[in-house]
Amino acid sequence: MAPSAAQRIVIENCSIATVDADDTEYASGYLVVADNRIESIGAGRAPEGLENVVRRIDGTGHLVTPGLVNTHHHFYQWITRGLATDHNLFNWLVALYPTWARIDEQMGRVAAQGSLAMMARGGVTTAMDHHYVYPRNAGDLSGAIIGAASEMGVRFTLARGSMDRSKKDGGLPPDFAVETLDGALSATAETVDRFHDASFGSMTQVAVAPCSPFSVSTELMKQGAELARSKGVRLHTHGSETVEEEQFCKELFGMGPTDYFESTGWLGQDVWMAHCVHMNDSDIAAFARTGTGVAHCPSSNARLAAGIARVPDMLKAGVPVGLGVDGTASNESGELHTELRNALLINRLGAHREAALNARQALRLGTYGGAQVLGRAAEIGSLEAGKLADFVLWKLDTLAHASIADPVTALVFGAAAPVTASFVNGKQIVEDNRLLTVDEDAIARATRDEAQRLARIVAQG
C-alpha cells in the first residue's frame, strides 16, 4: 500500500481488462494510481476517503488495458519506408543495406522519434529497438536512440545489435556496413555499462543483440552470449524468419537455425528471437524447454512473404510470445495496436483456422506476453496492485465500435480505437491521440528532411 502522502489519480466508470493470470475483467470498474504504481483496481466505484487525489478521470465509454509492449523494431527504417515493396527478405535486405549503411546520428535520432511517436500515440508504453547498423564515423547512434525514448517518456529497451559477416565473408551486408568482432563486442559492452538500468521500474535497459545468423559470425554469436550473461542482460536476435534462412544455416553450419542457436548458447530464459516463422515441432519444444521467447511480427512477415508463424502451437507448448512492429521498411504503418488484429487474423489462415487465436489471446500477446519476452512481467504487462502504472484508455463509444458489445472484441477485431489517454510510470504521455511530450508536427518535418538528405547521400554514392 502506498503511503497516504502519495499523489493519486483515480479512473472510474470504465471497462477494464487486467490481463492478469485469471484474465480478470470488470464491466464497470476503477483504477487507482499512487505516484508511479497501481494501488488498487476493482469493480464499481473507487474506495472512499482517498487522500491527495490530484486528478479524477471519468472513463465512461472506455476500455482500460495495460500499455502495449513492443518486442521487436528497427527505428532507423522510419526514414526508408515505402522502398523495395515487392521483395522477399534477402532481396529486400540486399536492396536496402547500402542505404541503411549511410545513416548518421541525426538521422538515427529523427528516425527514432518518428518510430516512437507512432507507437506511443497508439497505446505503446514500452518499446524496444534492435539497432544493428553502426557505420563508421556515424556518431553516437545508441545515445541518440535512447535520448529520443527518454524525451518521449516511453519505457525502453535498446537491443544493441551488430554485424561482422559482410559480403566478402558470405553474408549480405556490404563490407563497409559491418563492425569487426572485437569492435562490436567492445561497443556493446560500453553501451550496457553506459545505459542499462536493472532496477525495478527502470526506464532504460539494454540487451545484447547480434543481428542474424547470415550477418554475424559464429564467434560473435558465442562471445555475444557470454558478454550478455556476464553483464546480466538479455539476448536478442532474428531467428527462423524465412525458408532461405533455414537453407543458409544448413549450408553454412550443417544444421537448422534452432540447433545452431543452441550450439552457440542462444537458447534460454534470457533470450528472445524475432519472427520464428519456420519452426518445426522439435524447434518449438526446444524453445519451450529452455524458456526462449518469441517476438511475433505478423504484418512484417506478410509484407515480406515470410509465412505464418505457428503462434498457437508455441503458446500451447508454453513458449513466451509477444508482438512486434518490426522495422517500418517492412511495416510502414509503424503501429503496434494494429498488430493485435493482424496477429489474430493472419494466424486464422494457418492450420488451426478459426481456433488459432481469440481476442483475449491477442490482447495478452500485446501486453503481458511482451512483458514476459522483455523480462519485465513482474513490473508491467497486466493491471495489478503493486505493478507500474503503465496503462491506456481506449475510446470505444464512437461510430467505429458502436454495435460491438464486448469491449475487448471491439478493441481487437474492430477499427483502430482512439487513445484518449496513455500513462507511463503514472505520467500521461498521450491525450486524445496526440503526444504531450514532443511536437508531432516537428517530427514529421524532420522525418521528411532526413529522408531526403539520406536519399541525396545515396544518390551521390
Low-confidence stretches: none
Mean pLDDT: 96
Quick one: biggest sheet?
9 strands, mixed
Counting DSSP E segments of at least 2 residues, the number of strands comes to 17
Instruction: Using the alpha-carbon principal axes, give the shape.
Output: globular
Strand content: 15-25%
Coarse structural class: alpha/beta
Distance between the termini: 61 Å
From the alpha-carbon coordinates, what is the Rg to the nearest angstrom?
A: 21 Å
Q: What is the helix content?
A: 25-40%
Describe the structure.
The chain is an alpha/beta fold. The chain is built from 14 helices and 17 strands. It has helices at 89-100, 105-120, 141-152, 181-195, 218-231, 243-253, 257-263, 281-290, 298-303, 311-317, 337-347, 359-373, 407-413, 440-460; strands at residues 8-17, 25-34, 37-43, 53-58, 62-66, 68-69, 124-131, 155-162, 204-210, 235-239, 271-275, 293-296, 321-323, 391-395, 419-424, 427-431, 434-435. The strands form three sheets. Strands 1, 2, 3, 4, 5, 14, 15, 16 and 17 form a nine-stranded mixed β-sheet that branches. β16 (427-431) and β17 (434-435) form a beta hairpin. α2 (105-120) crosses α14. It is globular, with a radius of gyration of 21 Å. The protein starts with 7 loop residues before the first strand and ends with a helix.
Structural descriptors:
461 residues; alpha/beta; 9-stranded mixed sheet; 4-stranded parallel sheet; 21% strand; globular
Summarize the structure.
The protein is of the alpha/beta class and 461 residues long. The protein is built from 14 helices and 17 strands. It has helices at residues 89-100, 105-120, 141-152, 181-195, 218-231, 243-253, 257-263, 281-290, 298-303, 311-317, 337-347, 359-373, 407-413, 440-460; strands spanning 8-17, 25-34, 37-43, 53-58, 62-66, 68-69, 124-131, 155-162, 204-210, 235-239, 271-275, 293-296, 321-323, 391-395, 419-424, 427-431, 434-435.
